[in-house]
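Cross-posted from the bioinformatics board.
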Amino acid sequence: MLVYEGDFLKTVASKLMKEGCRVYAPSEIAYTEINHDSQISDVKPKKSVKEFLFPQNEVLIGYGDWIEKVPLNRERRAVVGVKPCDARAIKLLDRIFLEGFEDPYYRARRENTIIISSSCEPDAYCFCESFSSPFSEEGADIFVSRIDGISFVKAVSEKGKEVLKGFESDLRNPTDQEIEKFRNEEERVRGLFRRSVEAEIQEKMKEKFDSEIWKEIAIGCVGCGTCTFLCPTCFCFDMLDEGEKKGIRYRAWDSCQFPLYTLESSSHNPRREKWQRLRNRFYDKFLYMVESKGNVFCVGCGRCISECPAGVDIVEVLQEVSR
Amino acid sequence: MIAESISNPYLPFKAEIIEIRDEVKGLRAIKTFRLKVVDGDRFDYKPGHGCLVSVFGRGESWFTIANSPTRPDIEFSVLKTGKVTTKLHEMKVGDLVGLRGPHGRPFPVDEWKGMNILTVGGGIGQTPLRSVYQYVMDNYSDYGELTVVYGARTSKDLVYRDELMQMIEDGYNVHLSIDIPEEDWEHFVGYVPDNLKRLKPEPENTIAIICGPPIMITISLRVLKELGFREEQVYTTLERRMKCGIGKCGRCRLESKYVCKDGPVFRYDELSTLLEKA
Amino acid sequence: MDTETEKIVRNRVAELLNEDVEAFVVFVRKETEPRERITVIKGPEEAEKVALSPLSVNNTARVLLEVVNNFDGKVGVVAKGCDSKAIKGLISEGKIEREKIHIIGISCPGIVDYRKLIAFSPEDVIFEDGKLIIKPGDKEIPLEEVIHDNCRYCRSPSPVIYDEIYGKAREPFDGTDDDEIEKLPADERWKYWIDVFEKCIRCYACRSACPMCYCTECLVDPVNLAISPMSTAEEKAAYPRFLGKTVTPADNLFYHLIRVFHHAGRCADCGECERACPMDIPLRKLERKLQKEIKEIFGYEDEDIPFLAKLDIIPEGR
């Protein structure tokens, strides 16, 4: 960890913009493109950073008589002020898209996107503390924490170290007091969380699979895709062709909450009922992914709670499960 | 294209339709397509492997390969049921389709050496089983006795009918059945599990493979258990709505397993621990 | 709606569940934030958890429609003005039988944007006499300050159909429903809407939350959800795909305009679409504009027969 006198997010954003790199920063709706460092805000965007690596629509193949084009996006981009929960989610997405068959579209974007995360304070919906911390550097290329006018800066990946080259003279080792200041701040923020979940809930979940609670919770659920689309770790997608003779084969975000997701051509649907689909989301994140990848696929960003039209609340649901 | 397809698993390689056979006619028509890979060598596969057949403009569908790797070319038997399959049924010899695969976990045919093989099929579910019994027939010295149990609603709905009749003539253990009685039908009348009950296959040193409609699979498994088969001796191959075929897109997941990557072949003891019964 | 109305309703729900009502669509409080959610209760002993306040934001008609046929007997429902409008619409469209339901009508003072209250814990927020009281420090906030914008345009805060009625309604809106956007020149309006629809992620929260969007078969779905084992391959292959899953401003606009047009003369004005939207798209502007046009062009407003059915009636002398 090094120290920069001033706001390092602004400095690094300006430098990257000067180099011709497109720079994005948090805004109310999404991480959006900025053209000046004054546009960097601290809000938690409603859309997570996943769309930079796994956009809602991505063309896989352009076809005519046969494959005509395979567009891989290698544009250099930087996202600054990424929330640590969002950055951590990238680590989890890597496990899906880069393990086994490597996904070349994801890989191309991943290699060319610089993630500069910034420590943050929880809002009423946050619970990242249950898995990690708002000071986590996981998934970032550079981690920044701005405290009392100075920035603590750490290059986390090789890509991050590359970016920090050229800042050597402005970065110095922290003093003992500064290290203490960082620890104190981390401690203070830790105390601000109002929500938490039990991450090691897998055995309880197995017991509760056939419980009536799922039907009760699903009554209010409207069955939309908001929770899954806004989730930084949800990765399911559909593949479609557009154009009969000439066109594109593209992928698009899909959601296990939609009945069409599992509907088979025979009309058989393994998850016909809304409550089965609702249950699937919780089991996927807290049991199935733990069994297959060893990770809970939730980073505690709270978006599925704050944006749910019906007040379905993952924290309350998991509390109900552990009861 | 093959080299590129290996680095980009979403790119299909080119295959030409070299033969089309009508298996079943009517509303639920089934055709068998014989394909030759155009831009490269034929790929290696094992019985049970699946492929995504791609028709640009319509999409892709997952099929298990219908013939044994010991036979020439690659065959798929396709039931006309949706957008892609309707288009395939309209295609002619010489037309091109895309292929991605082979994907998934095939039948462990090497582990089964020295054992008796029993296939239990219903309707279009005979497809992956055909790959298995052809493989066993072509490597007969490696295996014990082969028994093929197969049924469909009517004699006209039997896939590979002529082939199976020829196998009977050649002295193979093939036991056919139809659900509804017909004149001139010399074989069993009744459901596949009933035929199984009647035949009483010996569980000793035997591997059973079931494939067909869900209800047939469930009841056949029950019958086999009554006959003394353990779940570890029984295999099946599953179908789910699939898109990517490479363990990413998520829709074919059975809890922690992907049907396209960890299946489609499963041993029954792997399925009986699942929470979700579908 | 205040603590007094909540008590009355709670008692009535318990009484009715002891009588001929089998299940009740009601609100209950959330544990972790000042917000309520809809649930269905079946026994009178469950009535003690019934909540009713300006935080009872969702439209109960959607849940009523979903569960009403799961029960042999009567199903009760707590309905605000807009909820009752949706129920009335669903009855006139033959989706719900009037005799099958018991409506506790609630005259509504307006509902609150819960996002404005997330700083507080649920037990600290109390509603009394049209005021919101935050317990620590007894801070009073007039309801008007935190109310949903949509409620300011509400023409029927009192239920239009009910079996019994409680509460005190706000003054109905009586002005002309002009929107700032309407006054802009065409090219600026176009730019406004394209920018708005650029944000849409097609999560279909608007469609799913809407009590009047009940079709199984929707034209924005790439395959038909209403297939059966009897559907033929040709039928399925020929199913038209009006929209794929391309999330472009043009496709998003297509989706939203078609959706709104399907609500011509049917919208309950509850604002669920706009509240459900995670991308803050002002969907009510479209719905209100359409209701206005329907009234101006066809003279149709809140009638007992559906709008399209009215157009079907051949005038005398033709």
